[in-house]
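U., I forgot to send this yesterday:
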Amino acid sequence: MKYPRNFMMLFVFASSIIMLSCSDDDSEEERGNWQERSVFDGIPRGNAVSFTIGNKGYMGTGYDGDDYLTDFWEYDIDGDFWSQKAAFPGVARTSAASFAVNDKGYIGTGYDGDVELSDFWEYDPTTNTWDEVAAFGGGLRRGSVSFAVNGFGYMGTGYDGDNDRKDFWKYNPNTDEWSEVVGFGGNKRRDATAFVIGSKVYLGTGIGNGIYIDDFWEFDAENETWSRKQDLDEEDEYAITRSNAVGFTIDGLGYIAAGYNNGALATIWEYDPANDDWEEISRIEATVRQDPVSFSNSSRAFVLLGRTGSLYLDDNYELFPLEEFDEDD
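Result:
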């Protein structure tokens, strides 16, 4: 039987589409697996702070939908269990900043429901005690980015009660002093994300002037210089822009997970600093969320807590980025 030429062309085109679709489905492997870990023992919350010292994660403060909190907790990464520690002695708050330097943790700034704050506190896990240290050099602040590298703490951006900010400051734990670090050319923002790889820090996301910020920056801590990397929307397939996410590092690669962009998110993106590019891997196998916290000792990482709408969460998930997705574990 002979078919009209137009019919044959349509058949070949349709067959090609089917073959291409099958080929894509067959070749596409979802990389990145999540495993649920010990549920947080305390009150579900969002906008808490966290830091990691060795194989222990520390988390405290935050907001549970009704109250601002001061309780403080330790998570044993190896043992997969929680222990409550001495409560944070400052004013109960949300949207604070934190980092760990020389086996001590630091928490400060934030919002107490009425005003932004500037105080800072040091936690010693060996004695389970707190001491107040020098107030943040940049003044009142919430929703800032904070990180530690090369024995110093750094903090910047955020909201001061009147204006989004882009300034950066360095904290020296040996002298208990803050000094301003100049040279950041990025946009003002609040609720951004950062992660540390070696002596380099990578910063992006957040919101400013009512829009999601797409510029992405590398901070070289050795020279205290900033350089701009590829924007987070440079490639059409990228969907990284967001606020209220978490950033962490596993084996030399950076990750940005969860957050908010016109709704809470479950997506996670992996950054390769050698190529300055991103790859999306399997989204978190749990409720979508914004305002979570993370623990990372550079070889293992966890995403936990946060909220979706008015639902506050207390679950805890570990990411295995090289494993194939398994919805049953």
